[in-house]
């Protein structure tokens, strides 16, 4: 009897893992469907600025719940994110139902998961092209910051020179160069 259990156990583990994978896929597909329907409804009833604000606040709520309640379960984090987002939207005078708000927070969660999967995938398989692209992006960002800094420094120097020239007359040079004009 013991050998039968030991023989069957790997098969049972494999089947259980497969079932969990299928259930996860079904749940994510369902959430994606809810997200699409909620976004469609939300877009039909709110302005672009309000939608942007709703998505921003929902993202803030998700980030708040993710960091402040690290040890809590997913449902508790969702409730805290809903509460945060609801209060912030009420302060802004935007009325959104809890189901719509939940869908937007779920969207923020799915985007977060997609980003973390992409990061993990790139860390697992280092890609030279991606590293070069990131380096180019970092260099261009640094160059832009350097240009901004130089423009600011130049503007400050010009304003100092202008302020000094406005308050003090520029003395004439005693060694002026004379040019003669001749007619031919």
Structural class: mainly alpha
**What proportion of the residues form beta strands (DSSP E)?**
under 5%
Number of domains: 2
Please outline the major beta sheet.
none
Proportion of residues in helical segments = over 70%
Radius of gyration: 31 Å
Spell out the helices and strands N to C: HHHHH
Number of helices, where a helix is a run of at least 4 consecutive DSSP H or I residues: 5
Which residues sit in consecutive blocks of at least 5 with pLDDT less than 50? 173-177
Count the E strands: 0
From the N-terminal CA to the C-terminal CA, the straight-line distance is 125 Å
Question: What would your notes on this structure say?
Answer:
With 184 residues, this protein is mostly helical. The chain has 2 domains: 2-124, no CATH class; 126-155. It has helices at residues 2-45, 48-68, 74-92, 98-124, 128-167. Helix 1 (2-45) crosses helix 4, helix 2 (48-68) crosses helix 3 and helix 2 crosses helix 4 (98-124). The longest helix has 44 residues, at 2-45. It starts with a helix and ends in a 17-residue tail after the last helix.
């Amino acid at each position: 009897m013991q050998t039968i259990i030991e023989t069957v156990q790997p098969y049972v583990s494999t089947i259980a893992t497969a079932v969990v994978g299928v259930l996860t896929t079904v749940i994510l597909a369902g959430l994606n469907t809810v997200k699409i329907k909620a976004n469609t409804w939300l877009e039909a009833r709110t302005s672009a600025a309000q939608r942007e604000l709703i998505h921003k606040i929902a993202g803030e709520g998700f980030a708040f719940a993710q960091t402040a309640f690290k040890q809590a379960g997913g449902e508790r984090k969702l409730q805290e994110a809903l509460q945060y987002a609801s209060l912030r939207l009420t302060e802004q005078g935007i009325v959104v139902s809890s189901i719509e708000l939940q869908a937007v927070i779920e969207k923020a969660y799915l985007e977060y998961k997609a980003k973390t999967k992409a990061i993990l995938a790139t860390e697992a398989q280092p890609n030279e092209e991606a590293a070069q692209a990131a380096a180019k992006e970092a260099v261009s960002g640094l160059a832009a910051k350097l240009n901004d800094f130089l423009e600011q420094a130049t503007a400050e120097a010009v304003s100092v020179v202008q302020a000094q020239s406005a308050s003090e007359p520029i003395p004439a040079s005693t060694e002026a160069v004379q040019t003669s004009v001749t007619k031919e």
